Amino acid sequence: MTEIKIGRLLSSNSRQFLVGCRVAQADIPALGTLVRVNPQSNYAIFGLVYDLYIADDGLVRQLATVEEMDESVIADHRINRSVPLEIRVLAVGYQEDGKIYHLLPPRPPLGLELLWLCTDEEVVEFTNSGRFGYLRHILREQDIAMEEVLAAHLQLAERAHRQAGDIHWSSRVVQEMIVLLRDDYTNLIRVLQSIADTQVFSENDWENQL
Amino acid sequence: MISEQTFTNDALTPMENRKIGYLIGGGLRENLKARLVIPSDQVQEGSFVMIPSGNWVYYGLVTDIQLGATDARFADEESEARLPGELAHWLHGQTLYTNLEILPVLMLERGPDPASQAYQPWLEEIKSGRRSEPKMMPVKTIPPHHADVFLAGEGEIAEIFGKPDQEGNFVVGYTREGGHAVCLNLDRFVQRSAGIFGATGSGKSFLTRILMAGLIQRNRSSLLVFDMHNEYGYDDVASDSGMKVNGLKTLFPARVRVVGLGANSMVRGTPADFSLEIAMKDIRPIDIELLSTELNLKETTPTTLEALVASFGPENWFSKFKEMENGAMVETEDERGRLKKIPAPSSVAAWANQAGVNAMAAEGLHSKMSILFHRGYIREKPAADGIGEIIKMLQNGMHVILSFGDYESDLDYLFVTNFLTRHIREAWEATTNQYRTKKLQEPRPLVIVVEEAHKILNRQMAAQTSFNTIARELRKYYVTLLIVDQRPSQIYDEVMSQLGTRISGWLGDEDDLRAVLAGLAGRDTLRGMLTHLQPKEEVLLLGWGVPMPIPIRSRRYDQRFWQELMKGKSKPQSEEQIIAELGF
Ligand SMILES: Nc1ncnc2c1ncn2[C@@H]1O[C@H](COP(=O)(O)OP(=O)(O)OP(=O)(O)O)[C@@H](O)[C@H]1O
Ligand SMILES: [Mg+2]
User: Fold this and answer.
1) B410-438 and B386-395 helices cross at what angle (nearest 10)?
2) Residue B218 to residue B198: CA distance in whole angstroms
3) CA B275 from chain center: how many Å?
4) Nearest of B579, B577, B571 to residue B217 by alpha carbon
5) Cβ pair B95:A195 closer than 8 A
6) CA atoms lying within 13 Å on the CB side of residue B62
7) Which partner from A71, B168, B337, B528 sits 20 to 30 angstroms from B350, CA to CA?
């Protein structure tokens, strides 16, 4: 298992944290990716990427007005910029002494802690533990593109589960989302429509799964 | 929650004893509510369900099936069009649902779980008599939230309505879903008067035939059938299907007598076994008074009749009155030698003047009664004692079907049924009293089957007729009624309220529905069931004679029915023999 590190923690609270990384990095995590911080050897915090933000570093405004720009200038701007790419992560659970909890982490990670990409095995283990309690943390947030994050997460995690031989995970998680949102017509329909746009449902002949 | 709502492998689970839902609310008064966990079209109104819970099993009927949604918008939107099929399916599984309303009727103690420690002591208590045997009782408590609801199976139906092969039990039909046999206990059935109702063409006569065949086979009571339309004795052809319909005489040639009204009477082209003629000496004023409406009699009638009896005695008044000449006059000379017309000595008026009653009234009555004077079945000296014969046959365990032949008017029906019933009532009261006082032979129970019962048992009539007495108190004298009618609302309420078992086919009329259900618990819900019954095919069993109401598919009156019935006959017969005998 090759661990892939993404960046370092800039700030955090119990519910979310902010991570900075270099823009040119090959492995900028996609929206909906499950990530992990390991403050201690027996303590890991799991999070879900819900926003990626590239801040204005002052120079970019001047460059943007230049009419003819050399490719090298653009590359230089991306590699050597002083302000990092910001990754916003929603805390969705933690692992302590080997056991996974879909609760908010008891202690948030500290500054400059390393952020790691979860492996497929970790994704399967985390999303299979308990009964989808981690969805709570996503559904609670008002200010995020909740349905998009859910759809992105579903698509990524489904692939991991399918590779592990479980083709029914998506059905279970979607039904749980429906149960959690069934009193909220507007949001539920929005979530289902985003999910409908993922590869999971557009590619599969669903009847075969029943 | 997820797994309960998703429809999986339905086809693999048999309907029998299958979980169909769980309780979510309700109560004794407003029915129990359950969430359905199988597709809504797999449960019908009237389905017989059971709810085992704790120490009890509850039994009830599905009385309503309702579609619901967690939010009306989920139901309004046709989300199938907007979402992939799978998602729409899951969405509906969680947001759209079906609720059942269940009328709880009976409960049975089943004791603790047989696997538990408490079970053995519980059994011991029953065996030692410290605890009474568990028995069916009306619901007094209700099961808790989330108790599972099952479709009752053959075992439960038999537990409640009786096993088909048990003595005295008779299959009247089958449950609508499972097709399990539903029995009536015939011995209980005849203990009180019963009624078979339904709109015209709903299958009353066919079901009556089936029940009568069962009663004859059972041989515990005699039947006297007032067969107004000549349909029960000899073979017939069903008017709608053209199917040959066997008469009771065909099936039980040795035990059934078809009696025709009047000498040489023919019933459907076949001579009757026996003719009934009524002797004038047996007719009493009450027999005439009952015809007030039919004959349009005046209030003076009782006085005139009373005077007739006073003049000629109870046995001769009818023939004497008949002989009188209405309006006959003779000429006589008065003191001064003038010719004058006065009533002839043989005239009605002459008798009236002499008896001190109003001559006009007497003449009026005479002319109204002339229709009876000329009825072929009323004779001065009949060839045989018809009434006595019929009573004897019934007392000896024969069954009598009285066909009216060509005398199909209401007048004949009223007159003859009342007349006969009055005599039967006297005979059975006498034998019962003898049995009670002198310990002589116990009377043979008698069931009088009355078609078009409202003609005799309507509000006006009932107070005067013998039928009313029979319905009200004659069961103590071993006589009960089986009334067959399409307008139960026209039958006197007091009679209706005496009916033990009620069997009803489809009814549309508001008043009829009310009449059939009067006095029963859960009327409102049963009402719905009655209006949804399939004509010719389904009936609802109700009342004292059945442990709980249940809609059934009525048994078919066909070759198979006869074969099944014959199997129970003491003398074994081959199938060919039976079929040959039946003429199939
Ligand atoms: N149990 C049955 N077995 C076979 N056929 C039946 C049965 N019940 C009803 N039918 C069919 O329905 C028709 C009408 O039934 P039936 O004559 O018993 O109606 P009804 O209620 O007595 O009508 P009405 O009030 O006009 O006398 C029959 O001719 C027969 O074809
Ligand atoms: Mg009929």
Assistant:
1) 50
2) 26
3) 27
4) B571
5) no
6) 30
7) B337
What ipTM is given for this predicted complex?
A: 0.86
Q: Is A106 within the bounds of a domain? A: yes
Structural domain includes residue A210: no
- Domains of chain B listed by start with CATH number: 15-152 (no CATH), 181-277+382-582 (3.40.50.300), 282-378 (no CATH)
Ordered DSSP codes for B238-288: -TTT--EE--HHHH-TTTEEEEEESTT-EETTEE-SEEE-EEGGG--HHHH
Instruction: Walk along chain B (584 residues) and give the pLDDT tens digit of each residue.
Output: 333 333 333 333 344 678 999 999 999 888 999 999 998 888 888 889 999 998 899 999 999 999 999 889 998 888 888 888 889 989 988 899 999 999 999 999 888 887 888 888 888 888 888 888 888 888 999 999 999 999 988 888 998 999 998 888 999 999 988 889 999 999 999 999 999 999 999 999 999 999 999 999 998 999 999 998 888 988 887 777 778 888 899 889 999 999 998 877 777 778 888 889 999 999 999 899 888 888 888 888 999 999 999 999 999 999 999 999 888 888 888 788 888 888 888 899 999 999 899 989 999 999 999 999 999 899 988 888 889 999 999 999 999 999 988 888 889 998 999 899 889 988 999 999 989 888 878 889 999 999 998 888 888 777 777 777 777 777 788 899 999 999 999 998 888 888 999 999 999 899 999 999 988 888 888 898 898 898 889 999 999 889 999 999 999 998 888 888 877 654 444 555 545 544 44
Dist. CA B206 → ligand 1 center (Å)? 5
Structural tokens at position B409? 């008017």
**CA B563/CA B133 separation, integer angstroms:** 38
Instruction: Tell me how close the Cα of A178 comes to any Cα of chain B, in angstroms.
Output: 6
C-beta of residue B267 within 8 angstroms of C-beta of residue B403? yes
Q: Look up residue B396 and give its DSSP letter.
A: T
Tell me the residues of chain B between 167 and 226 that have a Cβ less than 8 Å away from chain A: none
Asked if B2's CB is within 8 angstroms of A179's CB, the reply is yes
For residue B106, what is the enclosing H or E element?
Answer: strand B96-109
**Who among A185, A206, A207 is closest to B71 (CB)?**
A185
- Count the domains in chain A: 1
Question: Hunting for tokens 């003398």 — which residue is that?
Answer: B571
Q: Ligand 2 center to residue B522 CA distance, Å?
A: 28
Which residues form the domain of A69? 4-205
Angle, CA B479 vertex, CA B248 and CA B512 arms, to 5°:
75
pTM of the model: 0.79
DSSP 3-state of B234: coil
Tokens (6 digits) for A164: 């592990």
